[in-house]
Amino acid sequence: MTPFLKDYLSSLKVEKNLSDNTINSYRTDLTLCIEFLSDSGIRDLSTVTTADLRAFFKQLSSSGLSATSVARYFSSVKGFFIHLLLQDYIRINPMDKLNPPKLPNRIPVVMTLPEVNAILAIPDTEDTFGLRNRTMLEVFYACGLRISELINIKLSDCFLEDGIIRVLGKGNKERLVPIGSEAIKYIEQYLVKSRPSLEKKGKSLSFLFLSNRGTKLSRMGIWKILRKCVEEAQINKDIHPHTFRHTFATHLIEGGADLRAVQEMLGHADISTTQIYTHIDPEFIKQEHKMYHPRG
Known about the structure:
Elements: H1 2-15, H2 20-39, H3 50-62, H4 67-86, H5 113-120, H6 128-143, H7 147-151, E1 158-159, E2 164-168, E3 174-178, H8 181-193, H9 195-198, H10 219-233, H11 241-254, H12 259-266, H13 271-274, H14 282-292
Antiparallel strand pairs: 1-2, 2-3
């Protein structure tokens, strides 16, 4: 069954241009499914039934995985069996009669402006790493980037005089994102005072944000920096790198920004993804209704 998995993962890379992180997620999900089927005595994917896959998803739920995680496995397995069907290896898709788990409508955790300011104030900008950390956090909040987008920014992506940065998002889709004056100020300071001492020939490869080894900052490195800042700022919320993205979008919309403009800045393919941010502040929605509705 493994050769079919390798073929599918290759097609995701070539045809859909998915990132290595996304492909690794598919590999992890589908390997677990194939191992389950193998342990159940199944050696040929053409013999897999709906009942077999239902048992797999039931086991995932019983193991304590959240509905969101099970839904991710469901999506991975569904795509895999569609691929097998298109390749004429199976005649009936056993996933067709299964429904994905129902997901709760969760409102993203968002920081208030005082909370953002409290976190930004933690790094010591007189220190090499402190200035880097402050700059990184400023860019997070100013641009609403995904963590993968932030760590892959290169010097050639920064058009500071024009007030924009170039970002490579999901599916290697390129977009231009405005960057505010405060973030630009810190980038300029960082480029002069900190980055030269962090840069190492042959390792830095023109990445904007560098580790103490001279390589680009890792996801885990950013998580550790942010966790430390949140703890020192004494903010009792579940804040992670993506929270800056949620906060960026929410503050823009609450400030009156057009939803489609926010969609472009976030790099969302579907505006319905962006619309979750219109449901965060009921008081704001009431104020908007009162201000703009004829009978408000």
